[in-house]
Amino acid sequence: MFPQPVSRGRTLIGRLPKGSDLMAEINRLCHEENIRLGKVQAIGAVSKAMVGFFLQESREYFSLEFDYYLEIISLQGNISIKDGVPFTHAHIALMNNEGKMIGGHLIEGTEVFSCEYIINEYMPEEDKTFHRVLDEETGLFMWPLK
Ligand code: ZN
Known about the structure:
Layout: E1 6-15, H1 22-33, E2 38-55, E3 60-66, E4 70-82, E5 85-95, E6 101-106, E7 111-124, E8 133-135, E9 140-142
The chain binds zinc ion.
């Protein structure tokens, strides 16, 4: 049940290589470091971006592609378990060369130009609380309410 107290684990700080896929690289890091619950935040820039928007009626994501340079103003997300492995759910706010903001639900297809990240690991009292399951009401994979 929520909220659930968690204790702090490691804090990982680093940068991602130019040309890597932002979403895939964060997931790869979480697998490699076995982060089962955590918070991720990052800033930097991308060469192109791919974000999703969830259509609540049809219960599916459509994707938006921005094929130009953008600054990462804020990437915020959490890490938990989906299908038995670490899974990142992140949203990203990006700025174009006119200072205008765009953003969305981060999906694969966003190419890193530069990226500095901080990942905070947490330890829940009960690990299974943060295993994502299909929520019938929304069609999304979320943490179970009970
Ligand atoms: Zn989302």
